[in-house]
Amino acid sequence: RFESDGNNFTVSKLDIVLGGGETKRIQLEVTPKVIGILKLVGIRWTLSDSVVGYQYFEVATQKKNKKGKRGARRSLNTNLIVIKGLPKLTGYIECLPTKAFTGDLQLLTLNLRNQSEHAVKNIKMKISHPRFVIPGDSSDLDLEFPQCLRKHVQSDSNTVSEGTKENVKGSLFAFPQGIKIQGGTTFSWPLWFHAATPGNFSLYLSLYYEMESTTDIPYRTLRMHYNVEVLPSLDVSFAISMCSSRLQEYIVRMDVINKTPSDSFALNQLSCVGTKWAVSTLPSRDSISFVETIPANQAVSCFFKIKDLSTSSCIEAADGSCGSDIVLSPGGSTDVFDVSRTPITDFHYQERHQQGKLAKVPRGLLDFILISKAVAVNSSKSEQLLSHHTCHCSALSQNPVWWLMEGPRTITHDFSKSCCEANIQLVIHNSSEHNTTVRVVTSDCMAEKSQTAPSHESASGQGGWHDVSLENDIKAIASTKGTHSQKQSSESISPFVWCSLSSAQVDLKPDSSAKIPLKVCIFAPGTYNFSTYELHWKVHSSESGHVDENVTSGGGQGYPFYVNVLQGA
């Protein structure tokens, strides 16, 4: 048949213009309306509304192949089996960018339309790159982005608890069981987009759905494909060093480089992931004047202080004066985004898996999230939010034991009446995952360069009580005025001695601390460095207490601890 049969099928009609010697490829359509066998016979064409021609389809049957020869090939299947109509879903992602900056965070919408008369159910979706796209919750459709991510706006229902952090959204997502898409309707679902890393990537979405009515085909699939180019934006790196004056405090340097040729970005906030760590400005400054924007091809460095809030001695953890977020934008104290809620936390743990698997990283490593905003040239453009995730940062020192000397820095005493006794204490922390035995050994020996003592003190390293005579003092003074390479008299008095035991031992459980009281007897005014002690530790790697000394044993010298001792009235 070459004409439409309104009861059984309809065929398409196409008008084309052909130039001299021109060849065109066209596509014709036929739509059956009843169940049966549809046979395609040929086509009819009309030239200038005057000449009518016919072209019948020639069907070449498959012949038996002889050895070394090919048989005739069937060029067209003219007999088509028409079955009952099936549900068909079509879909697209609304506002998915073809180009985005690294770190770009957006709320998108997936629209699915059922073009048939039958409902579909049991919809499942697989995403090729969950690092870039993850499904949201049904309530996310009504959110106003990015205001919905601020701390004072989000609801508690989107908080990701500590116990479910590893159960992050993966590549396979099942829509709620009760969702059905009726025939002729459109269904929408929120998607979160995060441009994780620069480069070109292909995004594939595959949807599986079942028919609500009984059919010969129980399920169908829908596939969507998008190409996205991610452009470089901010390159963020961190350098962490231990603070020598406070236990479990660190100085952090953040280096940010704008790698775009013409765009500027404003830093909004820096956050430490989790509740264990807190970030704050350096104590020497009440406020830091941050750069409002980072122009194209420019770099900036910022310094912060982080501390461990899990220790019992942390005062800031008790009064809540220190938090895991610090605002970088001027006057933006209320503009804080909550990194502990979806989708930021979901994308963060995707980055953790990419930058190092969760099961293989040691405890105590830090994760940072830098939130920034693109500076829009046109004020009418919506706010563009970017999140940069840096995971598994560590301090320079990875010793299992940390220690710190605590005590008065200035002492006033009347030495005409008695010698001075100073009470100090050594705080020791076990940061390993096993029980650790720590032994502290004090010594009255002094390194010459680390003590500020009278010029006649011994350079031989001997300390304690010794006989002092005028003859020895004269020899010492003469030796000082002579060649400095000659050893001075070994008979002298140390300016201070340790009054407590020469060694002490303590057993520490994982992630615990202990304080060892110490006492020093000082004989004269001056400035003294109480660092003449050593620590030796052994980590018990099993419950039986077995110690592998080649791997889990170590030690360290005391850190400098200077005390000014003044003569009182």
TrEMBL record:
Residues 103-222 form the TPPC8 second Ig-like domain. Residues 407-534 form the TPPC8 C-terminal Ig-like domain. It comes from the Eukaryota. GO terms for cellular component: TRAPPIII protein complex. InterPro entries: Ig_TPPC8_2nd (IPR058538), Ig_TPPC8_C (IPR057651), TRAPP_III_complex_Trs85 (IPR024420). Pfam families: Ig_TPPC8_2nd, Ig_TPPC8_C. This is Uncharacterized protein. It comes from Aegilops tauschii subsp. strangulata (Goatgrass).
